[in-house]
Amino acid sequence: MDDSLNFDTLAVRSGTLRSEFGEHSEALFLTSSFVFASAAEAADRFTSSGDYYTYSRFTNPTVTMFQERLAALEGGEACIATASGMAAIMSVVMSALKAGDHLVSSRSLFGSTLGMFSQIFSKFGINTTFVDPTNPDAWKKAVRPETKMFFLETPSNPLTEIADIEAIGAIAHSVNALFVVDNCFCSPALQQPLKLGADIVMHSATKFLDGQGRVLGGALVGSKQFITEKLFPFVRSAGPTLSAFNAWVLLKGMETLSVRIERQSANALEIARWLESDPAVKRVFYPGLQSHPQYEIAKRQQKAGGAIVSFELNGDTPEQMRANAWRVIDSTKICSITGNLGDTRTTITHPATTTHARITPEARADAGITEGLVRLAVGLESATDIRDDIARGLTP
Fold first, then answer.
1. Domain boundaries along the sequence of the chain
2. What is the full DSSP assignment across 32-43?
3. Treating both helix axes as pointing N-terminal to C-terminal, what angle do 383-391 and 257-276 enclose, rounded to 10 degrees?
4. SS3 content of the chain, % helix, strand, coil (to 5)
5. Which residues lie below 8 Å from residue 37, measured CB to CB, with a gap of 6+?
6. Distance CA 387, CA 106 (A)
7. For residues 18 and 20, what is the distance between their CA atoms, to the nearest angstrom?
8. What's the rounded Cα separation, in Å, for the pair 66 and 150?
9. From residue 255, how far is each of 14, 66, 208 by CA, in Å?
10. What strands, in cross-sheet order, belong to the sheet with 373-377?
């Protein structure tokens, strides 16, 4: 599709493949395999590099449409889809690295990502150094001769720390390291890391790309060479595959991505400003607030602050802080208490005992995740109703 088209048009129109029936909406190809006219044709298509469909573990028309649409939105040459965001991280690391290689990563990550880097990949001889994502010098100092990858999540989960993608990308490229950026919190509607120096953009499509909490999915976007020569062979053999049904749901979700994110960001900013004025709240973490330490960087590389607002409750002890956080969460009647985010429905969670519960207390402390921290993923409800729902538990 024409690269000159605007984002909202690409979100609705790009990647569409029509069958001989001329359907208007994207077709859902629920099939495990594809039929060939002859044994010779089957042999050719299993060995050819052409755009043929052979087996849905690695080639499916509905999944292709999702991949092409997301690549268009991120400004990438190609995309490969996976069963989840964690499957995407596994795929890019296992495709690009080997035993003895070194990875430099932000220390501010989703809990499962931290666990995968520190506990799983280390068993295969891939070691990780965790650094402050907001300090480019820390990334530079962490580099070793065997460093082959930089991994960054920005904004971070759950404190919405903002890292300078361009600055970190320059360091990665100076040492020939692959630079991977998790763009889950912003989505391409707010941020396009490839244009800022990233080599690969990673997504948990489960979040904002779907936007309605229905299915799991993941994706990696980058150059056609890396996707086809490195990632595709791994996904084809290992099978962390996105299902055709989930791809179809994600395609429909992306059609409304820009509209949803714009409204959710506006709601989040209103709620963040209100929380910042409440005496029961110690601190608010939101990139759209001028009090955010990386506010200027966020303004430069994001179109808006996003939908995630985290805030820390007052308390003299960790036990009191947890009690205050749990009171806010348990007093809500509208917000959904769940670890997921990116939904049209506002979700609320206590990161220290849910999303980051499986990492060590020391790792949580290093990441700034206290017992008083609450993460709010703002949805499409009335901002006034969300605010009133949270206010119910702010004071005993």
1. 7-254, 257-391
2. SB---SSHHHHH
3. 40
4. 40, 15, 45
5. none
6. 32
7. 7
8. 26
9. 10, 11, 11
10. 281-285, 308-313, 373-377, 347-349, 336-337
pTM, two decimal places: 0.95
Which two structure tokens, joined as six digits, stand for 259?
Answer: 């509209």
Beta bridge partners of 129: 104
Are 149 and 171 in contact, with CB atoms under 8 Å apart?
no
Q: How open is the CA angle 108-159-76, to the nearest 5 degrees?
A: 65
Query: DSSP 3-state assignment of 310?
Result: strand
Instruction: Judge if the upstream peptide bond of residue 155 is cis by omega within 30 degrees of 0.
Output: yes
Read off the tokens for 363: 């790792």
From residue 151, alpha-carbon distances to 185, 311, 335 in Å are 15, 25, 32
CA distance 378 to 207: 12
7: which residues sit within 8 A by CB, 6+ positions away?
A: 73, 188, 189, 258
Nearest CA-CA partner of 306 in 384, 207, 217: 207
CA distances from residue 246 to 95, 183, 238, 358, 365 in whole angstroms, order as listed: 24, 20, 19, 28, 36
Q: Which CATH superfamily is domain 257-391 in?
A: Aspartate Aminotransferase, domain 1 (3.90.1150.10)
Structure tokens at 249: 């749901």
Q: What is the DSSP letter of 17?
A: -
6 CB-side CA count, 13 A: 3
Tens of pLDDT along the chain (396 residues)? 666 899 999 999 999 999 888 999 999 999 999 999 999 999 888 887 567 899 999 999 999 999 999 999 999 999 999 999 999 999 999 999 999 999 999 998 888 898 899 999 999 999 999 999 999 999 999 999 999 999 999 999 999 999 999 999 999 999 999 999 999 999 999 999 999 999 999 999 999 999 999 999 999 999 999 999 999 999 999 999 999 999 999 999 999 999 999 999 999 999 999 999 999 999 999 999 999 999 999 999 999 999 999 999 999 999 999 999 999 999 999 999 999 999 999 999 999 999 888 778 887 887 789 999 999 999 999 999 999 999 999 987
Which CATH topology does 7-254 take? Answer: Aspartate Aminotransferase; domain 2 (3.40.640)
Instruction: Using DSSP, state whether 158 is helix, strand or coil.
Output: coil
β-pairing, 102-106 with 127-131?
parallel
Give CA–CA dist 330/86, Å, rounded: 29
Helix (H, G, I), strand (E, B) or coil at 341: coil
